[in-house]
Amino acid sequence: MATTSPPGVGLLKGLGVTIKQMFKPAVTQQYPHVKPDLPPRTRGVIALMDENCTVCMLCSRECPDWCIYIDSHKETVPPAKEGGRARTRNVLDRFAIDFALCMYCGICVEVCPFDALFWSPEFEYSEYDIDKLLHEKGKLREWMDTVPPPPALDEGADAPGEVATAIEKANQELEAAKAKAAEEARAKEQGEQAPAAGDAAAAAPAEPEVKAGEIDQETFDRLIAEGKSERIARSKAKAAYVKKEKQRLKEQAEQQAAAAPAAEEPKVEAGEIDQETFDQLIAEGKSERMARAKAKAAYVKKQKAKLRAEAEQAGGGDAVEAPAAEGSGEAAAGEAAPSAAPRKADIEVEGAGEIDQETYDALIASGKSERIARSKAKAAWVRKKKQEQMDAEGDA
Amino acid sequence: MSLVGPLLLATFLFCVGIYGVIARRNAVLVLMSVELMLNAVNINLVAFQNLLFPAEAAVSGHLFALFIIAVAAAEVGVGLAIVLNLFRTRATVNVDDVDLMRW
Amino acid sequence: MSIAEMANAAAGLAQFSPAPSLLEIGDSFWLSAVLKIAVVLAVFFVVPLVVGYMEHKVMGHQQARLGPMEAGPHGSLQLVADGIKFIQKEDLIPSAADKWVFAIAPGVAMVPAILIFLVLPLGPGIWGVDFELGLFYALAVGSVTTLGILMGGWASANKFSLIGGLRAAAQLIAYELPLILAGIAVALQAGTLSLVGIVEAQSTFFIPGTEINLWYLFPQILGFGIFFIAAMAELARPPFDMPIADSELVFGYMTEYTGIKYAMYMLTEYAGMVSMSALMVVLYLGGWQLLPGVPMPGCGGSGNIFDCNALGVGLGVAVTLGKIMLLTFLMVWARTTYPRLREDQLQRFSWLVLVPLSLLNLAIIAVAKGVF
Amino acid sequence: MTGHDLAFLVVALVTGGGALLTVTSKNLVHAALFLAVTLSGIAGVFLVLAADFVALVQLVVYVGAVAVLFLFGLMLTRAPIGREALDNQNRGLGIAVSGGLFVVLSVLVIGAFGGTTAAEVGGPRVGDIGMVIFNTWVLPFEVLSMLLLAALIGAILLARRETGDSGEEQAPTRIDMGTAPSMEAERMARLEGGDDQAELTAGGDPGPAAGRGEGRA
């Protein structure tokens, strides 16, 4: 049985609740004066990194509201190599999102394969006229500056996929070059030549790492003074810092090189960027992200070239052979590596996505589907590789 | 102040009330007309009391006016209840239609 | 000597002589009339705004909000801004509405609300008229507001408005009875209907056999409760806001009103809060007296509350306004606390609870008056 | 012509105009509102005649209660619009009777009190009225209170839907409202035709259609 209280007590209790509430602080946020404290990955508006867009139209097709409008045209790119085939690529003319229709489902962001669309926490873009909610790519690009950097990786986590791949590739090539150098050195040793360059390379000091995240204060201040956005200024200042740092290190390295002419870089560090390329791209108005990616690639490429050159130097008179070996492509490098370091062969062979062209062509010709042909050709390639490896071991 | 003014106004209101009672067919309007006549009488009572016998201690004019107001209120209450009941049973409030007792 | 005068003398009743208002300057009729009208209008337009702002803020804080913050410091000019907005709004009249009735209904509701302020004493000497029938006048004039509300509800040609108007009329009639009965008990105890006279009577009311001065709040606490509840119902304030119950009737009789006419209805409501509170201050809380038995600084005269100098007058007005604010705060407090009643609960509460209680109150006071 | 006379003239014009419009208005609710104007005007007349208390009683009882009650009555029953719905065929008779009466009474009044004027308008104070009520007129006063009580009970009994004995509630009246406010003629036609949508409360009555049919026949 419920306890009964005399009539009217409930009414007084109610009054007590309201009067107590009156002296508690209000929960109101004074929004226009005090900005809301949003979670870091708030989905406010969709920003576009238009350099990354390949006009694949996936976002537009997946959009449930059909609120993404994309126009593009095709451009013919001259062949990259002499005698190569000219390629066409899509150039983005217009990318617009109608935020009057958008329902902020985020499917476009999820579906974009090239990291061109991002969620930005920006939310103050209301308009008095509904027509003005159709935002073109310029505006979408501006919001890109408000996209927060991706969350930091956990301590001890694996490197992101693309970075890991790049590292692996570079390491492979390095190994190949080293192996070649060692082979040549062995050959030379047999011919009673100079000591191995490989040892010297191993002994050479590594280039000190340039810390990312530092900014060049001078540049930063100047850009802010020019009215650039804080984010752009920061990225450019970072670039400037890196440039300066590299410059300093390069000078240092040159000094060291002068002291020890045989010095070379033992390993291509992932994450290093090629400053020249980076600066150039930034100067061309490319985004920092893009520039950084391309500069990384350029760095890796350069490092490779450098290593090759060193190997050639070490190889001395065999310089003619080296370009030919390189020219035959990665397969050659891949083939060379196992012979030098058989213990790694299995892993490398399995990990590769190379296909055996002969098998592939034969299967396609016999009417098999492209998919089957590709997978069988891959298997064939691996088999071949193993065979070769075993042969090499037998030779040894 | 002249006594004729209030008396003439009362006369006018009374006659207007009579016209309303005769010429209107809606029961509520008839009741309203009756109210007009009662009020006309009230004006007369108060006017006679205050203008003709201002020194009279018994203030009977005022008293009768108050009594009439009270009776009129009771009359309106009962009258409207009857009209409402009539409307319920006959779906009409026209006095012309309520002629069941006419032979 | 007439019979009436003899009877009066026998009953100890003095002939009524109105207390003079401070607003009467010299012998100039027109000057003092203009001054009175100015004071009444100023009170009518300013105090309800303050009450409305207080309601906004109190409701806000009691609901974990801040209330208005933008117009003026801490939103203090919010209602002024609202007023300007109402003036600018388009004055819509529904095509099916009865144009004339629709147009004049807010005025019919508002004018009585202004007229009540004529007799309310705000401080020593600060009143329009000390009317012999002051209390009766205030209650009588207030009852005319019903007509304005019913007119507005009917003329809108909208069933929600009509139901709201009917509810308002039924409610106002039902709660006028306990209101008047509670008021009669005060008049009975004070021996006068004049509001100034009631204040004076409270300053000279002592517990029988002692020298302890008391306001009528203490002997008539029951009457005060009845009057307070009935006043809230008269004003259709929540929890008695069935006539405009926005979850059932959109906005009741105000549904079709916009702009300045809507503002007039709202002003009527808030002015009603002020005038009802002022009436309660006069009837139960000793008018402009600071505390029971405490003489006003700067005042002399009967009960030490009349014949005041500037300090006394200012203090008296401040005390009255403070009490009005306190009572309106109570109304707002009740509003935020209690849910709305149902229509049948409302009527039942009036006829079966408040009316018998007020009759009981009246009987108690009459017997007590006869005994002591 | 004193100031009192002038003030009286103004309120008298308002009152008379309101009364005239009350009985001639084609809209029932307008008529009730004009009645409220008339009653307020009469309160004004009382004020001019220095009868404050009666004026306030007039305001409370008539304007605050009776007029509102009339409006209630109109809104609970239907409020048809139009002269045919509100007036009967006796307009000429009404004008003749009331006009004749007005002329006769006016002549009488002017003849009797034509020259009577009061130098000063003053009335009894409310205290006097109270004393007189509870001294001289106390018996009529009590009888009046009994009358009011009887009227109260009677009105409640009449207006309640319950039947006397069982206390059970009867089905409410259902009325075909038609499409426009003034469908009186149509409704009458339907009543005559026996196609009566109005469901009536039981009461042993043969029903209006049948009853009228017999009456007319």
Give an overview of the whole structure.
The complex is a heterotetramer of chains A (396), B (103), C (372) and D (217). Chain A has helices at residues 9-22, 58-62, 107-111, 137-144, 161-190, 197-203, 217-225, 230-259, 275-283, 288-315, 321-327, 330-340, 345-351, 357-365, 370-395; strands at residues 45-48, 68-77, 87-98, 117-120, 134-135. By secondary structure, chain A is mainly α. Among the domains of chain A are: 45-146, Alpha-Beta Plaits (2-Layer Sandwich), CATH 3.30.70.3270; 209-245, no CATH class. In chain A, the strands form two sheets. A three-stranded antiparallel sheet of chain A has the order 2-3-5. In chain A, strands 1-4 form a two-stranded antiparallel ribbon. Residues 193-208, 261-269 and 317-352 of chain A have low confidence and may be disordered. With 103 residues, chain B is an all-alpha fold. Chain B has one domain (4-90): Helix Hairpins. Chain B is built from three helices and no strands. Chain B has helices spanning 4-23, 27-52, 60-90. The longest helix of chain B is centred in the C-terminal third of the chain and has 31 residues, at 60-90. Chain C is mostly helical and 372 residues long. Chain C has one domain. Chain C is built from twelve helices and no strands. The longest helix of chain C is centred in the first third of the chain and has 34 residues, at 29-62. Chain C starts with a helix and ends with a helix. Residues 1-14 of chain C have low confidence and may be disordered. Chain D is mainly α. Chain D has a domain at 1-84: NADH-ubiquinone/plastoquinone oxidoreductase chain 6, subunit NuoJ (Four Helix Bundle (Hemerythrin (Met), subunit A)). Chain D is 67% helix and 0% strand. Chain D has nine helices and no strands. In chain D, helix 1 (3-24) packs antiparallel against helix 2 (28-48) and helix 2 runs antiparallel to helix 3. Residues 177-183 and 194-217 of chain D have low confidence and may be disordered. Chains in contact: A-C, B-C, B-D, C-D. At the B-D interface, helix 1, helix 2 and helix 3 of B face helix 1, helix 2, helix 3, helix 5 and helix 6 of D.
In short:
The complex is a heterotetramer of chains A (396), B (103), C (372) and D (217). Chain B has a single domain (4-90), classed as Helix Hairpins, CATH 1.10.287.3510. Chain B contains three helices and no strands.
CATH top-level class of the domain at 1-84 in chain D: Mainly Alpha
CATH superfamily of the domain at 1-84 in chain D: NADH-ubiquinone/plastoquinone oxidoreductase chain 6, subunit NuoJ
| General shape of chain C | globular
Average pLDDT confidence of chain C is 82
Oligomeric form of this entry? heterotetramer
Report how far the terminal alpha carbons of chain D are from each other. Answer: 62 Å
Poorly predicted regions of chain D are 177-183, 194-217
- The amount of beta strand of chain D, in percent, is under 5%
**Helix-residue proportion of chain C:** 55-70%
Q: Which structural class should the secondary elements of chain C be placed in?
A: mainly alpha
Largest protein-protein interface: B-D, 79 and 99 residues
- Helices and strands of chain D, in order, run as HHHHHHHHH
Into which percentage range does the β-strand content of chain C fall? under 5%
> Per CATH, which architecture of the domain at 1-84 in chain D?
Up-down Bundle
The figure for the number of domains of chain C is 1
**Helicity range of chain D:** 55-70%
Could you say which overall geometry of chain D the principal axes of the C-alpha atoms support?
globular
Q: How many strands of chain C?
A: 0
Rounded average pLDDT of chain D: 74
Indicate the structural class of chain D.
mainly alpha
Number of strands of chain D: 0
